[in-house]
Amino acid sequence: MPTLLQSISYLALVLASFSPLSVWGFDNTRNDNVAVYWGQNSFGATNPSDTANWQKTLSFYCQDNSIDAFPLAFLDVAFGTGGLPSINLANICNDSDDPVFPGTDLPNCSFLASDIQTCQAKGKIVTISIGGATGAVSFTSDSQAQQFADTIWNLFLGGSSSTRPFGSAVLDGVDLDLEGGSPSHWPAFVTQIRSHASGASKKYYITGAPQCPFPDAFLGSVLNSVGFDAIYVQFYNNFCGLQAFTNPNAWNFAQWDNWAKTVSPNRNVKIYIGAPAAPQAAGSGYVSASTLASDALQTRSQFSSFGGVMLWDASQAHANGNFAAAIKSALSNGGAPVPTTSVPPTSTTHVPPTSTTSSPSPSPSSGSCGTVSAWVSTIAYVGGDQAVFGYASSRLHCAKLTTPLSGHLWTAKWWNFDETPGGASGAWQDNGLCGSSLVGKTNHRTTSETPKLKQRSRIYGRE
């Protein structure tokens, strides 16, 4: 006969299996998930002297139940030396400071296998994020896209290869953070990944990270063509960021919710509020943890497509008072599998007309920049991005201009970083003085992604 103590211990174990602890971890049917990007040491880039808070290894951020999904950022080179991709995880693993597989620029980060498996054992998913601010991955044909999908499957997911950068660890899917290149042929890539996953013994996820202006310039057509499990909409560094949550003419979660329910090939796709995890994590859009929690809970009560919150990035979140834990705590209060239908209040369902949610080419004679963000030196811009610069918009940087301007609209001609509009580089086209309102896209990342790839290890402090 078991003793009384043994009986109580057994009962405790049974009860624990039915406790709220069992819902911790990623579940795509729920509305309380927190996804946090890891890999770019954003805090270290903006706080180079505070080495104590530089990005830690992945398992460090898995010790509590704050984060459910980790996109690893970034796979930023698709077809490198030897025809294989390359990844850059800043101070943790990169092709400058770590061994690479012979004949390639693909770093051997197999020491991260145990970290990844530790996180997965706690119910979290770990995916590989393709793209980023400098990762302009493009394809010339569907066939090339399919071949690249085969490579990703064999190197990171359920396939096999002698050049697996994370060793025996099997990632849980792919995240597309496309901020350059061409959207052409990406549907073929996603379809090929889905084809491999259809016969697998585990679930694989496809996510994307569009910016909030609808439709996204790089992912919009892809999202309309193939099913995604979740999208982490970047509600920052844009007119429609979290700073505009109370403005129904700018905050456009309703537009994304409508897309999810009427356009997306997967009508069960989840929409996340993407947010900066600290003031320095983005140029605009940061709000406090309490404000973000309130905004997220209000959005969840209105839109059944709501899946959770995405944060950029893990290093910033941890240094900012464990920002992710505060958001997870708020979402966990009432989080559950989402209902199948939802009717948002009329006052918050305003959808801006098409002319204010795209990025048309501005007139060469005069600029219109009522809602375009001011130029920020710590943001990388790609060709077509717009920014406002001059005494009226950016007093911190206007001294660099040889001729003072008063609120001009500028359009980037090519990828550039810390190239002052009107400066000698010629990276910006002056579209004239600001006039009426025009919505323009601005890049969402900060200096953590913009330095030249070969210099990142020194910038991020890895010796």
Automatic annotation (TrEMBL):
The keyword Hydrolase applies. Keywords: Carbohydrate metabolism, Chitin degradation, Chitin-binding, Glycosidase, Hydrolase, Polysaccharide degradation, Signal. It catalyses: Random endo-hydrolysis of N-acetyl-beta-D-glucosaminide (1->4)-beta-linkages in chitin and chitodextrins. One of its GO terms (cellular component) is extracellular region. Residues 32-334 form the GH18 domain. Residues 453-463 have a biased composition (Basic residues). Residues 1-25 form the signal peptide. It comes from the Eukaryota. Its EC number is 3.2.1.14. GO terms for molecular function: carbohydrate binding; chitin binding; endochitinase activity. InterPro entries: CBM_sf_5/12, Cts1-like, GH, Glyco_hydro18_cat, Glyco_hydro_18_chit_AS, Glycosyl_Hydrlase18_Chitinase. Residues 335-367, 440-463 are annotated as: Disordered. It is an enzyme of class 3 (hydrolase). GO terms for biological process: chitin catabolic process; polysaccharide catabolic process. Residues 337-367 have a biased composition (Low complexity). Pfam families: Glyco_hydro_18 (PF00704). Belongs to the glycosyl hydrolase 18 family. This is chitinase. It comes from Lactarius akahatsu. The lineage of its organism: Eukaryota, Fungi, Dikarya, Basidiomycota, Agaricomycotina.
